[in-house]
Amino acid sequence: MCRTGCPAMNRYPLWKNLIILFALVAGLIYALPNRYGETPAVQVSGTRSSVKVDTAVMDRVEKLLQAANIQPEGAFLENNSLKVKFAGTEAQLKAKTAIQEALGDNYVVALNLQPNTPGWLAKVGAKPMALGLDLRGGVHFLMQVDTRAAVDKAYERVAGDVRRELKDKKIRAGSIKRLVSGVEIQLRDEATMAESRKAIERSLPTVQIAQQSAEGNYRLMLTLTDEEQRRVQSDAVKQNIATLHNRVNELGTTEPVIQQQGADRIVVQLPGVQDTARAKDIIGRTATLEVRMVEEDAAKLSEALAGKVPAGYELLEELDPRGNRPILLKTDVELTGENINGAQPSFDEQNQPSVEITLDSAGANIFRQLTAENIGKRMAMVLVEKNKGQVVTAPVIRGEIGGGRVQITGSMTTADATDTALLLRAGSLAAPMEVVEERTIGPSLGKENIEKGFNSMFYGFGAVVLFMVIYYRMFGVTASLALGANLVFLIALLSVWSTTLTLPGIAAIALTLGMAIDSNVLINERIREEVRAGVPPQTAIKAGYEHAWATILDSNITTFIAGVALFIFGSGAVRGFAVVHCLGIITSMFSAVVVSRALVNLIYGYRRKVTSLAV
């Protein structure tokens, strides 16, 4: 045993010191963007994917702002949207009004906040933490899904499926009526009724069938099973959530929260959005896709253009790069967006831009039959928003299309094909919704929450550092430096992983700091015990860290398990707390043991003679 100190006992190898140095530098770089804050901005995007936001729009916006004597701090294009920064909220509000009036209804103009991260940090992927609604401000909506309407739409599909099935089996049926709670089929005799029932049972297993045959009146009544109705209602809520995710992206929000609450409600939280009316407008822009047949009769089209639309038809506009043109469609809906699994831009056999659609099994069967019966005719893809339809494309059917893969071709560019695919993928609302609760948290309140939360955290940090330095002297200094490194590591991880930070998350950071310093208290007390027992200083340092490690590991693992349980079984703010808590445990173990040991090694490990420890 060394009696005068062991010089090589408490030295990390060079590679380990370099790893620690690299971790500290990387942590500082990726935590630094949070220092620069955010700037009020106005975001301009198209109401549809086909509406371009390019340099021409940016030049137009810059000129109108100059004419209105509004000076922006910068403007840039990103993801088919224009973002313009301003020095304050007053200029932001004036600019938003001026831009909206000048651009019209084809563009969405929304108030937003943009990070002030320097370019050199942005190049390495450094970005600030995503702040939650309580810290950044924004809007909160609680939306009620009309699940009864989802069941009604399911009955409409049943009526269409029955009509196609009986036609395919060459069974002559009378009227097929959609009733309030089911579908009624009128049949001519008992044999036809039996044959129809057999065909329906085979093709629609989720339907309950009741028959009536009194006094020559032969009818089949179809209703969905209770289990199927519950499935339809549940799927409607899930589909609405997916559609909302696609639509709120137009607002450019960071980490929007869209989640189910209860059986038929959806919570939508949009941090950073200051314009409630615009947010409601975007959320309401959930579209429905319909496949309908085009009426080629020129006489009927002329009659419709004259203002007399024939019964059973609807006059819409077809999107065209050269200018929208009128098109007459039948009102019967052959297929809806619910049967589309995916849509991707592609190229046809002539290497011309096209869109490839993937249908589910039911949609594939419907489309095969539809195309087989209408070769040479035009079929329209209609996007319906706010009860207003617009034809995305209307190709000619060249032949029967089976297999569930559909290729849409026409006079479109590569950009048009990409936009059409985006529109088709966006999906449709499975059921209508209404806002039952609405709250707005202004940026000033969010800023106040941030200041109070971080002030309380830093005051606590300062009090801990003061105590550690007074009580443990030099070892208290190393513990405080390690605690600061822990805070940097945690903020860097939250920024890199885009974890949304809320007020409970700030509480979790404060708890993490307390747990981290607790580990150093255990280490320092162990070193004290070794010194009091007469162990040489270098050996006391080594023994203190080794003996405290088991206790530190046990306590952190049990706390980590509690955090994982909170994440799995919790929701909303509880899960946010759990994420920060678990990340904090990982960073605290590294900083309290590895970083603090490296600092102690630098102070004591290179001395030839150590007679006492400042602990």
TrEMBL record:
Q: Where in the cell is it found?
A: Cell membrane
Membrane topology reported for the UniProt record: Multi-pass membrane protein
Where are the bilayer-spanning segments?
A: 453-472, 479-497, 503-523, 548-570, 576-600
Coarse class of the primary localization is membrane
Coiled-coil features, chain-numbered ranges: none
Protein export membrane protein SecD/SecF C-terminal domain sequence ranges: 433-602
- SecD export protein N-terminal TM domain location is 9-111
Record key words, sorted: Cell membrane, Membrane, Protein transport, Translocation, Transmembrane, Transmembrane helix, Transport
Which InterPro entries does the UniProt entry name for this protein? SecD, SecD-TM, SecD/SecF_arch_bac, SecD/SecF_CS, SecD_1st, SecD_SecF_C, SecD_SecF_C_bact, SecDF_P1_head
Q: Matching Pfam families, A to Z?
A: Sec_GG, SecD-TM1, SecD_1st, SecD_SecF_C, SecDF_P1_head
Question: What is the superkingdom listed in this entry's lineage?
Answer: Bacteria
Q: What family is it from?
A: Belongs to the SecD/SecF family. SecD subfamily.
Task: Give the function comment from the record.
Answer: Part of the Sec protein translocase complex. Interacts with the SecYEG preprotein conducting channel. SecDF uses the proton motive force (PMF) to complete protein translocation after the ATP-dependent function of SecA.
Q: Which protein, by its recorded name, is this?
A: Protein translocase subunit SecD
Q: Could you tell me which species this protein originates from?
A: Chitinimonas prasina
Source lineage: Bacteria, Pseudomonadati, Pseudomonadota, Betaproteobacteria, Neisseriales
Name of encoding gene: secD
